[in-house]
């Protein structure tokens, strides 16, 4: 007959998918009851209506069956406020390698996460699209990746990635939402019904800081920051908060766009000392079926900008939305993410490799 110890042992490698920690270690497995080859147990979730309940149930059932149970009954409960507060404390402590508690661990000087801000001069050139697809490409290459949607007013990352759920909040700790292997934090998660955000200056900075200090990012190799367009407050805030951030400038091939983008590049270099990784030219051409390229938005802007800023032109991304003939109800659908075997996804893979090589 199975013992409690055997059941706990079988569950020791079953992790909470968001916290990436063992359910046993998190004290989420309780009231194990064994009768013959029947096992019943409670799983105490961090919050009621945990979005990952189904996955947890499956993992627990499979593990206990593998240990020899013929029948597994999982009952769900949720932590008390006190338990959540204690867990939040525990998560914070683990995240706190810095001597100075005022500095979030992610922003500590010796943190190993590489920051990449995606900036542009003009709006609508494809910063968010590049951020999202570069992040997914890095994740597909096996990297641990996060995105901070720093466009507080004009957030678009959750929508582009097809994220419909909100982050789990445990006490004062927020867990980023994971999609396509990328952890995401956005103001969009905290706004009801697409309502406008009406904050100004200091609140914006505070919100951004919270995205680093209150969010349990876990280990990250890269954190991408989708900046709002132009050279405004948020861009400066980010620069001050994360002086070590690298930067990618996005432009369209049009000469005017490149001219405006040069200002964003100049700001990165002079005002903030962010190192520029290079330029991404987006919407470079439209390719017809006869494989002819049509330079709808002009030509050469990216190259010219790269020369002006004395950096590389890292990628030229053609015009073409991710294939939208995908089933809208499909789990894997996201309006702004190219499927792995789409030619544009391959362009992003090449970009991701250059980015990895460019930041050592
Ligand atoms: N290569 C592309 N081909 C076709 N459509 C694209 C391409 N890149 C971006 N788009 C579309 O263009 C629009 C603007 O892109 P996106 O939102 O990424 O730009 P942005 O620079 O982040 O804009 P904002 O300045 O408003 O934040 C979006 O609708 C996006 O889907
Ligand atoms: Mg954007």
From TrEMBL:
Asked if the keyword Hydrolase belongs to this entry, the reply reads yes
Instruction: Enumerate the GO terms in the molecular function aspect.
Output: 4 iron, 4 sulfur cluster binding; ATP binding; ATP hydrolysis activity; ATP-dependent FeS chaperone activity; metal ion binding
Organism's domain of life?
A: Bacteria
UniProt keywords, alphabetically: ATP-binding, Hydrolase, Iron, Iron-sulfur, Metal-binding, Nucleotide-binding
* Domain MIP18 family-like residues, every copy: 4-75
Positions with a binding annotation for ATP? 121-128
Q: Has the keyword Iron been applied to this entry?
A: yes
Annotated GO biological process: iron-sulfur cluster assembly
Q: How does it assemble?
A: Homodimer.
Name the job this protein performs: Binds and transfers iron-sulfur (Fe-S) clusters to target apoproteins. Can hydrolyze ATP.
**Record family assignment:** In the N-terminal section; belongs to the MIP18 family.
In Swiss-Prot or TrEMBL terms, this protein is called Iron-sulfur cluster carrier protein
Q: What is the lineage of its organism?
A: Bacteria, Bacillati, Bacillota, Bacilli, Bacillales
């Amino acid at each position: 007959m199975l013992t409690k110890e055997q059941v706990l042992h079988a569950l020791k490698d079953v992790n909470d998918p968001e916290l990436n920690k063992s359910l046993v270690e998190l004290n989420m497995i309780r009231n194990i009851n064994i009768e013959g080859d029947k096992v019943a147990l409670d799983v105490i979730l961090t919050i009621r209506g945990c979005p990952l309940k189904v996955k947890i149930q499956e993992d627990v059932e499979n593990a206990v069956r593998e240990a020899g149970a013929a029948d597994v009954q999982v009952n769900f409960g949720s932590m008390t406020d006190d338990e959540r507060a204690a867990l939040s404390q525990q998560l914070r402590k683990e995240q706190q390698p810095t001597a100075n508690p005022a500095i979030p661990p992610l922003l500590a000087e010796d943190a190993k996460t590489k920051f990449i801000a995606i900036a542009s001069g003009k709006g609508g050139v494809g910063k968010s699209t590049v951020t999202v697809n570069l992040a997914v490409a890095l994740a597909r290459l096996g990297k641990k990746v996060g995105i901070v949607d720093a466009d507080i007013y004009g957030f678009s990352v959750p929508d582009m990635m097809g994220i419909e759920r909100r982050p789990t909040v445990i006490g004062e700790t927020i867990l980023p939402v994971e999609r396509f292997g990328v952890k995401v934090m956005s103001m969009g998660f905290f706004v009801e019904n697409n309502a406008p955000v009406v904050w100004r200056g200091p609140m914006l900075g505070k919100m951004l800081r919270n995205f680093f200090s209150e969010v349990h990012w876990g280990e990250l190799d890269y954190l991408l920051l989708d900046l709002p367009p132009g050279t405004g407050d948020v861009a400066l805030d980010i620069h001050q908060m994360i002086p070590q951030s690298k930067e990618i400038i996005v432009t369209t091939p049009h000469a005017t766009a490149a001219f405006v983008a040069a200002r964003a590049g100049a700001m990165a270099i002079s005002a903030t000392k962010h190192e520029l990784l290079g330029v991404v030219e987006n919407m470079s051409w439209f390719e017809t079926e006869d494989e002819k390229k049509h330079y709808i938005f002009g030509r050469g802007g990216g190259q010219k900008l790269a020369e002006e800023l004395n950096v590389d032109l890292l990628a030229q991304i053609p015009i073409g939305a991710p294939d939208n003939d995908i089933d809208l109800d499909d789990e894997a659908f996201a309006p702004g993410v190219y499927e792995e075997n789409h030619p544009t996804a391959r362009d992003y893979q090449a970009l991701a490799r250059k980015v990895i090589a460019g930041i050592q």
